[in-house]
Protein 1
Amino acid sequence: MPDTGAASWIVAVCSQKGGVGKSTLTMALAAAVADSAGRALVVDVDPQATTVEEAEKLTDPGFDVTHELDPAKLAQLSRLRRYDLILVDTPGSLEGQEVLEQVVDNAHFAVVPFVNEPPSRTPTQRTAALIAEAGLPYAAVVNRIDPRSGGDAVLKARRELEERGVPYFRSFVRSYTGYPDSLDAGKTVYQWRARYGANMREDISRVNAELQRALGRIGSGVA
Ligand SMILES: Nc1ncnc2c1ncn2[C@@H]1O[C@H](COP(=O)(O)OP(=O)(O)O)[C@@H](O)[C@H]1O
Ligand SMILES: [Mg+2]
């Protein structure tokens, strides 16, 4: 783990399962930091550079985005002191294992988006093991909860994570079409004023608050 005295916190957003919301949550969290006048940088380490491509469609996201494939350069991230939060969006395949390991080695914390569907449980557990092995503190974030499901879906997702010994944030993210739609409209979720936009911001703000608290604990040495 890099020096916690550095001004830039580095948070890796990872899961070896594709489509669980890594890129979505990365951009939404960067937007949350920007919304409260913070400086956020999104680093896309996916060879396909999908996040950079998507972020370039945003009119005025309020955060910076860069593409970085060289693991040696990732190590230098910890020396970047301009940002309040650096979010590293990682690829969701085993091909990206080496890059993922490099990112994990150079981060202060990892967020693992989790969708409670059978195909994503084993990859989540595998990702968690890789992060734990590197000694990095991390938490799963339950994503894509049906807003109509009441509390049941959240409880079920938590139970699956508990059975696998994966720590998780209490805050979770509900499923809204506003995530892809806001991107299409060139806006971040914090700039999105359409239906359910407030719900989306509420979810992401809660995740961000929990993340900031986790980083605060690391900074004060009580994590
Ligand atoms: N909470 C959510 N509600 C609705 N759609 C979501 C949510 N999270 C992710 N998605 C959608 O799921 C798809 C995959 O998300 P993405 O962030 O690209 O996953 P990953 O980066 O893990 O492959 C995208 O179309 C995205 O818009
Ligand atoms: Mg992605």
Note: The radius of gyration is 16 Å.
Protein 2
Amino acid sequence: MDFLRPASWEEALAAKAGHPTAVPIAGGTDVMVEINFDHRRPEYLLDLNRVRDLYEWEVGEESVRLGASVPYTKIMDHLRAELPGLALASHTVASPQIRNRGGVGGNLGTASPAGDAHPALLAAGAEVEVESVRGSRLIPIDEFYTGVKRNALAADELIRAVHVRKADGPQQYSKVGTRNAMVIAVCAFGLALHPSSRTVRTGIGSAAPTPVRAKTAEEFLNAALEEGGFWDNGRVITPSVAQQFADLCAAACNPIDDVRGTASYRRHAVGIMARRTLTWTWESYRGTEGRTQRKGGVA
Ligand SMILES: Cc1cc2nc3c(=O)[nH]c(=O)nc-3n(C[C@H](O)[C@H](O)[C@H](O)COP(=O)(O)OP(=O)(O)OC[C@H]3O[C@@H](n4cnc5c(N)ncnc54)[C@H](O)[C@@H]3O)c2cc1C
């Protein structure tokens, strides 16, 4: 196995163009497991650890541009206000050691349906910045996941950054596992309220071949909130609306039975998480944070 060690982003792109089968390695917390278990024996490893730009982030007006290799601990420590859903999801990843090494770029590269960043990215709204020597493009997060552990990257492309919309309202992330730490999700759910556009977005993990949004559930809830004037009057969401939202989220799943859980358990748990995260975020919106947003909206 040859080891390619570019010192800059340009060198990394040139190396990937020259060796399209090269496997990029960032934190290595997925790649090294695969190599150790002999599940993968790449001809070339493309080490991205010397490309320092990948460890940087920028907070812009509307979004955060998060370098592909920014580790989860940095997101938790520095971006909790801007990206609360992703920070909560980061908390649930593995252990401090893994969170110090692994990052969102690697989670996207692996594109496992169980990856914890995905539901949070889907709910917040994100675009993946990918580049090759041919140029760069932004892939909407909904179009990034193309199959089980497959993504929209071309063979010569690398992930440079992820542009995640800054939170304009409360966000939540919930995960079911057999214990509280060091656990792959049985299923997971992300929810973000977007008061500025009066919309709700969701993300479901580990309950379909790819991470998915529950779009019918979102449309139902958006219409119900609009009709009832909820964004302005801040009333408690009626239990029947919350339950129908939960049922539609469960219906958006297309899970399998596996060692971690059955399909029917996953559907059930997604419904519960959808109802709970809706209650938590809506309660938060109705509180101080929400009142400020509503006043801003009315003025
Ligand atoms: C003990 C343990 C526990 C874990 N627990 C969790 C968990 O709870 N939740 C969870 O989501 N994950 C978990 N993981 C998986 C892993 O930590 C995450 O997926 C992490 O985000 C991977 O990031 P990384 O930088 O280490 O990726 P790497 O292992 O370096 O790479 C992962 C994949 O992405 C590709 N890649 C990396 N960077 C780029 C780039 N810039 N452009 C293109 N492709 C790229 C690689 O080629 C590879 O295919 C766990 C892993 C271990 C070992």
Note: Residues 263-286 form the longest helix (24 residues).
